[in-house]
Amino acid sequence: MLTIGKIGAQAGVKVPTIRYYEQIGLLPEAGRSAGNQRLYGRKALERLAFIRHARDLGFTLEAIRDLLSLSDNPEQPCVAADAIARAQLAEVERRLARLTALKAELERMVVQCAGGKIADCRVIEVLGDHSLCSTDHRHPESESSP
Amino acid sequence: MLTIGKIGAQAGVKVPTIRYYEQIGLLPEAGRSAGNQRLYGRKALERLAFIRHARDLGFTLEAIRDLLSLSDNPEQPCVAADAIARAQLAEVERRLARLTALKAELERMVVQCAGGKIADCRVIEVLGDHSLCSTDHRHPESESSP
DNA sequence: CTTGAAGCTATAGTTGCTAGAGACATTAGC
DNA sequence: GCTAATGTCTCTAGCAACTATAGCTTCAAG
């Protein structure tokens, strides 16, 4: 049996985050010691590692919730899991495209800054006028998490 | 003089967002009409467009605050603005590297899903065991905003 | 047996907005 | 001039996914 600090260290998740996951129902309520401290077994550790890994891969907690409920029913077809992963992949590809454009734009800005005064600074100038941009980096794509 | 909805439309920023920017001091308090509605001139529109553009490029509101105060003092050297832009570029490059690794991992996961049952699903399996990964996509990089 | 680390609960804060309620202002059509 | 639709006002609360703080209790080592 592991304390919360121990599984946290093993799974690479901070202690308050584990308590948070329990609170929102991603992890089941842990058993308690005589002194009211949470105790975890190997299954809990695996589940936490699963969550951590999925978070690393950029899945939202909602997606992870779905994936976990899928993995809890191993006799079902895996179409749903595949769909979640594909959606995530598509999302990552969108972010990649956008970030690539942003990188180009920022490089242009930075290269042109000659170390003069703000009045002549291309960084400020480019930010003030989108028409100076080469790429169309409009329309966000809300780059959340990972 | 433009109403809040008009500059919002022109700058591509939603009305409540403009009020929010005013609230946190990114935009100065707008003048008011007889009926207490906010009215904006060209300077306000330019400032808002600046903010919008910088947000598009992934700058945080804090960075934008700094950039705005720089652009308000055009006689200063532009080293600071350059530094902010370079930091942003570095951040974007870090995210790009990470997202590229994630994409590879997700592609591996998705390709291997054969349409069987969850029990055999590589998506679930890979998420449960980091050692099945080829890349090291650990250590977040908190992918905030753009 | 004492000390210090680790654990507990509960609440509030973070970032960058977005949504809702209920009241007032403005504008377009008739 | 009137009415209806749209726009704007303030205020509060909510979103993700945590993180931090305060003030307490429990545990393990020396």
3D structure, described in words:
The structure is a homodimer of 146-residue chains. Chain A is mostly helical and 146 residues long. Chain A folds into two domains: 4-59, Multidrug-efflux Transporter Regulator, Chain: A, Domain 2, CATH 1.10.1660; 79-132. Helix content of chain A is 58%, strand content 3%. Chain A has helices at residues 4-11, 15-23, 42-56, 61-71, 79-112, 122-128; strands spanning 31-32, 38-39. A two-stranded antiparallel sheet of chain A has the order 1-2. Residues 140-146 of chain A have low confidence and may be disordered. At the A-B interface, helix 3, helix 4, helix 5 and helix 6 of A face helix 3, helix 4, helix 5 and helix 6 of B. Chain A binds a DNA duplex (30 and 30 nucleotides) through helix 2.
Explain briefly what this protein structure is.
The structure is a homodimer of 146-residue chains. Chain A is mainly α.
Note the gap between the termini of chain A: 30 Å
Measured by residues with Cβ under 8 Å of the partner chain's Cβ, the largest interface is: A-B, 63 and 63 residues
Radius of gyration of chain A, in Å, reads 22 Å
Sheet/helix structural class of chain A? mainly alpha
**Count of alpha and pi helical runs of chain A:** 6
| Main β sheet profile of chain A | 2 strands, antiparallel
Please report which band the strand proportion of chain A falls in: under 5%, 5-15%, 15-25%, 25-35%, 35-45% or over 45%.
under 5%
**Poorly predicted runs of 5 or more residues of chain A:** 140-146
- How are the strands of the largest sheet of chain A arranged? 1-2
Q: Which sequence of SSEs, written as H and E, runs from N to C of chain A?
A: HHEEHHHH
Please tell me the CATH architecture of the largest domain in chain A by its name. Answer: Orthogonal Bundle
Percentage of residues in helical conformation of chain A:
55-70%
Averaged pLDDT of chain A: 83
What kind of assembly state do the chains in view correspond to? homodimer
Under CATH at level 1, the class of the largest domain in chain A stands as: Mainly Alpha
Q: Using DSSP, what is the number of strands of chain A?
A: 2
Q: What characteristic shape of chain A results from the CA principal axes?
A: elongated
Number of domains of chain A: 2
